[in-house]
Amino acid sequence: MKGRVKDLSLAEQGRLKLEWAMKHMPVLMRLREEGRDKRPLAGLRIGAVLHVTKETGVLMMALKDSGAEEVVLAASNPLSTQDDVAAALVEYGIRVYAWRGQSSEEYYWCIRQVAESRPDIVLDDGGDLHAMLHSEYKKLAGEITGGTEETTTGVIRLKSLEREGLLLYPVVAVNNAYTKFLFDNRYGTGQSTFDGIMRATNILVAGKNVVVAGYGWVGKGIALRARGLGARRVIVTEVDPIRALEAVFDGFEVMPMSEAAGIGDIFVTATGNKAVIRREHFEKMKDGAILANAGHFNVEVWIPDLESLSVRKRVIRENVTEYTLRDGRKLYLLAEGRLVNLVAAEGHPSEVMDMSFANQYLAVKYLHENKGRLEKKVYNPPRELDEMVARLKLETMGIKIDELTPEQAEYLKSWSYGT
């Protein structure tokens, strides 16, 4: 069975997108070429629930070309699939269950197909596959060598399983690789979030007041890009005092959402939590305020409150839903509250996903090579693999760096040198 996608006739268009991504993902392409020669994943069955984009496609092809017996892919969001890429991957021999615009039932049906393929190693983005395996497929989960997780949200869910003693296989938290979160979360999400907002609305960011909820690495990137695009004020809301203090020292205004609600023209959530913008905030917002979410799930802008406050709802542009409140004010929700960068745009640039997916590839290889030797825990990626990705990325960019002299290396290892 080849899976289920929207339209196989879109494959040629998808191949062109994959070709474009390959040109901008030199680290992963180098690993893929090495994998073709050495076939380090020979015989493995791999199941993945990731955003089905051109960048993900390059990763899936690299895994297959490195010897994987079968690669099965489903989408990690009902609206993020690039249907032409999905078709091209099926043509390449990857079993894909993904199409844009899935219902909730269809979304989880697709993830079940991945679980039921009896994978040896699983890759996830957000934790829905891991959660399903630990609730509906415990016997199958007990046979899995290990898994990976791409997102902060997913790592939080897996850490919860580990704390409760319920984790059934070791997981490498790819999200925690420095070459992932310092670049993908910050620069990738920062740029692609505004790409999505501007494609959906065609508004000018310069001169607007932008409110960013959350100042983790994703929030930092969004705030940085808002300032770079000329936002008049960039306001950060936070619950963590250390992150709030960091935002202040980075030059941003910090205040509670209850205050920011009446100031913002554009609101972007990036917290991983629910109901970050809710009834009391909607009630204070300006007419015409724009609401976007950059977190994994569509729970940060609390849609039930927005629905209950509204007397009319209509789609006014693709990916823009207008809510008319009882007093006549209009609020505009982008991408149905889902990941705006993937629903209204194409997700992160290939250059930054090059590092993220190189980490995914190396994590799969690491789990396979260490089968039976890892505890059922959430692991950070090994530092040497992180450094390998960084060195390869610098090399492909034509950048050289210094190396320690033997004397310097000895000095750093010794406790005996003083002033």
UniProtKB/TrEMBL annotation:
It holds the Pfam family AdoHcyase. NAD(+) binds at residues 151-153, 185, 214-221, 238, 273, 294-296, 341, 348. Binds 1 NAD(+) per subunit. It catalyses: S-adenosyl-L-homocysteine + H2O = L-homocysteine + adenosine. GO terms for cellular component: cytosol. Keywords: Cytoplasm, Hydrolase, NAD, One-carbon metabolism. Residues 185-347 form the S-adenosyl-L-homocysteine hydrolase NAD binding domain. Substrate binds at residues 53, 125, 150, 180, 184. Its EC number is 3.13.2.1. InterPro entries: Adenosylhomocyst_ase-like_sf (IPR042172), Adenosylhomocysteinase-like (IPR000043), Ado_hCys_hydrolase_NAD-bd (IPR015878), NAD(P)-bd_dom_sf (IPR036291), S-Ado-L-homoCys_hydrolase_CS (IPR020082). One of its GO terms (biological process) is one-carbon metabolic process. Its cofactor is NAD(+). It is found in: Cytoplasm. GO terms for molecular function: adenosylhomocysteinase activity. May play a key role in the regulation of the intracellular concentration of adenosylhomocysteine. Belongs to the adenosylhomocysteinase family. This is Adenosylhomocysteinase. The gene is ahcY.
